[in-house]
Amino acid sequence: MYVILIGGGNVGIQLAKRLIARGEEVIILEKDASTAGKLANMLGDEYVMHGDGCEIYTQGDAGFNRADVIVAVTGEDEDNFVVSQLAKEVWKIKRVIARVNDPSHEETFRQIGIDETVSATAIIYNLIVQQISSNDLVPVGALHRGNVEIVEIVLSARSPLVGKTMADMDLPDDSFVVYAVRDGQGMPITPETVLHADDMVVALVPLERADALREKLCG
Amino acid sequence: MNVVILGCGRTGATLALELSSRGHKVTIIERNPESLRRLGKEYPCRIVLGNGLDEDVISKAGIEKADAFFAVTRGDNTNLMAAHVVRSKYKLDKVCVKVADPQRADAYRKMGLFCINASALLSGMCRHWLTDEPYLPINEYNILAPELKI
């Protein structure tokens, strides 16, 4: 798989390291010459290219025409926006992932057909909200396209679900408990599964029904 | 007409002064108060200080009632993203974007955006000035002349 990363900041470096370790073909595009030089020393010359990833010439040189995935992770939303849109429209790349620094821009990125947006601000916000309101669903990921969230929760002894089977559960529409972890062992959920206190359950829930699911799980 | 201009650089300021003097109602969005000096001592138009990619700022500039929007900061990508928001969210069709990179301008022109590329415009007009030919409409210059091999 050929992955092109645009932006050699912390996010870009960490991503590149992991992808290289996994044996993927990776190149990281960085427009600042001195930053690109440092990156080349750190990762190896073959993984770094100095150039403006928003320029179509540079994109051609980097091999956008044969890339499987483009990941735009600069610190500027407008730069990520243009890289992503050119990747989609000019190069017809199927999988484009963009970092969105300002969560209010997520909608704009979705409109131009970006497959996945990653917003550190939104993730940290969710974590903080989770810390200040206990007994809560922890959002572990969001499937934006379907507006569906993946959440996990540890069932307390007071939870109305403890002692019930999946078939008895009256969950909000389109919500599914898909997996549970008990005593460190993961187990898929079947209609006969009986939930215990301290089980950690993983559920899929439409964003707007997350509150209803919380009430069901926590009582 | 009600016109919103993003960016009070040389282009934005000149445009604001010219349109205001012809009776158009202009609002200019600028991030840096320093840049407003280009408008002279008495501002000819409304000013909204802030980031043009912030929807509160665009809305405060009166984009809902605008007849046209010009994105003319020195950042191509800022201009392109702001133009996208104005077109898609506020359904404004008369949107003009300044794009300095000729290839980027060409790509976005093909996506249906009206992009002004100063290099293409200037070189085209210089060409006709050189040969004493009559000047052409703006769009004729705006096209990237030799098809680029990528």
Characterization of this structure:
The complex is a heterodimer of chains A (219) and B (150). With 219 residues, chain A is an alpha/beta fold. Chain A is built from seven helices and eleven strands. In chain A, the strands form two sheets. A six-stranded parallel beta sheet of chain A has the order 3-2-1-4-5-6, with helices on both faces. Chain A has a five-stranded antiparallel beta sheet with strand order 7-8-11-9-10. The longest helix of chain A has 13 residues, at 77-89. Chain A is elongated. The mean pLDDT of chain A is 85. The longest helix of chain B is centred in the middle third of the chain and has 14 residues, at 76-89. In chain B, 39% of the residues lie in helices and 17% in strands. Chain B has a six-stranded parallel beta sheet, with helices on both faces. In chain B, strand 5 (95-98), helix 4 and strand 6 form a beta-alpha-beta unit. Chain B has helices at 10-21, 55-60, 76-89, 102-110, 118-130, 138-142, and strands at residues 2-6, 25-30, 46-49, 68-71, 95-98, 114-116. The N and C termini of chain B lie far apart (41 Å). Chain B is built from six helices and six strands. By secondary structure, chain B is of the alpha/beta class. At the A-B interface, helix 3 and helix 4 of A face helix 3 and helix 4 of B.
